[in-house]
Amino acid sequence: MEAPRLRFAPSPTGHLHVGGARTALYNWLYARGHGGTFVLRIEDTDLIRSTDESIRQIISSLSWLGLDWDEGPGAGGPKGPYRQTERLEIYKQAAAGLLEKGDAYRCYCTPEELEQERGEAKAAGKPVVYSGRCRELTAQQAAELEAGGRQAVIRLRTPESGATVVKDIIKGDVEFDNAIIGDFIIVRSNGVPTYNFAVAVDDAAMGITHVIRGDDHLPNTPRQLMLFAAMGERPPAYGHLPLILGPDKTPLSKRHGASSVEEFRKQGYLREALCNYLALLGWSLDSETTLITIEELIENFSLERIGKTGAVFDGEKLLWMNGQYIRSLATDELAERLEEYLEGTRLAGLPGSGGKPSLVDLVPLVQEKMKTLADFENLTDFFFLPLEFDPKAREKLLGDANAAGVLARAEAALESLDQFDAASIESLLRGEADALELKLGKFLQPLRIAVSGKTVTPGMFETLAVLGKQESLARIAAARSMIAAGS
User: Fold this and answer.
1) Which one of 58, 294, 297, 471 counts the least CB within 10 Å of its CB?
2) CA 364, chain centre distance (Å)
3) Fold of 391-485
4) Which of 23, 16, 32 is nearest to 64 (CA)?
């Protein structure tokens, strides 16, 4: 059996949507699991909406996810170029071949004439398809139209009766009535190919064996099959994925929250967690397994286990999964991920600089509390930045009748401590809490707010040890002064 060739072919009109990322992932997994080739092709024939910035964003998102491609931008390959606007001559030659064989023809109808046709068809209750009025134009008639200033599009000559059957790997056989398709345009009057024509030419030229894509493309498939037949090429096997849905069962979009890979990356999600979660939106290994490594996905992924109905994107489940992956990372690995992530935050370059604690120092304190990499900044910013009190924390501190006494007692005790490590601090402060007949949590709360400005921090004993004796005492003293001043 020949090695499969699969492609991911995004249109660069924005950031990579998670639906597109899942499509890329499924194609990548199938190619990797079957010794095949994964091709990245940029479909940018929408000249108005396509941008170079979107291409960079898509490539960046795929690279971040770890979905490397064997052929495509940056990788090269024998079937290039891999950007459609660089393949216009290829489409021109393909269209010329279809014209020469009589499988395509030039159409000179004006927009006004076509609109009149559509109106008449609607009024008569007939399918709104092109009538074929230019199908049998003579050379002389065509020349006269051109002399009159008419510009031509090129249309494919399609069957007027019968049906085209899409043998879909996921959905089964899907039948389309040829009579409601009509002779569709394959090249616009400006010479730019239409989507369906460029896709069919590219899939044939690049030897694509499997096309796995969203089911919003299913209506395009009969047209592409007609083009393969006209070109005398063997079509690929098709599989159309149900769309990813929001909680309201409509297609996932920005109104449901984050919907692009870049957004999830900025929010501190790990690539492994996002790939794992996306793989399970429409596919499953079994009825129980949730956490699956990329190696296990490659080994077990199959097209036959893809579901036929849309999967609902569950943000809470992804968040839970991300937390599981964060807690599974070794300290050094999580520190490396955080260093990369923090480049775009207020903490960029601060950990480990100027006597401040390093990431390796802090990861053990917060790893169990983190669900995203973004949580690190919220949990540890007080180690690096000038202390700012959260309004609720300040209110709680000022309203705590025990706070002044606790802080005075803690300050004196910590001042006397020679060995300022977490174990020594814990032993000392537990004793102080007992002496004041306060539960440890109630004793530590004003101390926590005093040194962090927050009500939630890493472990208090470890936090004080990392801050160090001098900084801890200075913050406690400042908090005592704030309480004394009443503000």
Assistant:
1) 471
2) 29
3) Arc Repressor Mutant, subunit A (1.10.10)
4) 16
**Could you tell me the two tokens for 324?**
């599981």
Arithmetic mean of pLDDT, 226-251:
96
Over residues 154-204, the pLDDT tens digits come to: 999 999 999 999 999 999 999 999 999 999 999 999 999 999 999 999 999
Rounded distance between C-alpha atoms, residue 187 and residue 183, angstroms: 12
- Please name which of 333, 240, 328, 202 lies closest in space to residue 19, comparing C-alpha atoms: 240
SS3 370: coil
pTM for the predicted model, two decimal places:
0.93
- Which residues, 6+ apart, have CB-to-CB distance to 122 below 8 Å? 128
* CA distances for 468 relative to 347, 449, 479, angstroms: 19, 16, 17
State how far the Cα of 264 lies from the Cα of 440, in Å rounded to an integer: 38
Q: Which residues are catalytic?
A: 254
When the pLDDT of each residue in the chain is averaged and rounded to a whole number, the result is 96
Concatenating the DSSP letter of every residue in 99-120 gives HHHTSEEEE---HHHHHHHHHH
Structure tokens at 235: 């079509």
Query: What strands, in cross-sheet order, belong to the sheet with 37-40?
Result: 37-40, 5-8, 210-214, 237-241, 163-168, 172-177
| Closest-CA residue to 450 (of 384, 397, 392) | 397
How many angstroms separate the CA atoms of 237 and 342, rounded? 44
Domain positions in the chain are 88-241, 330-378, 391-485
Residues 40-56 have pLDDT tens digits of 999 999 989 999 999 99
**Per-residue CA distances from 185 to 18, 45, 133, 466 (Å):** 31, 14, 14, 69
- To 10 degrees, what angle do helices 440-452 and 403-415 make? 80
Q: How far apart are CA 379 and CA 452, in angstroms?
A: 9
Does position 1 have pLDDT exceeding 80, yes or no? no
pLDDT in the model for residue 281: 96
The secondary structure of residue 192, as a DSSP letter, is: P
Query: Which CATH homologous superfamily contains domain 88-241?
Result: HUPs (3.40.50.620)
pLDDT higher than 70, residue 271: yes
Distance CA 420, CA 417 (A): 6
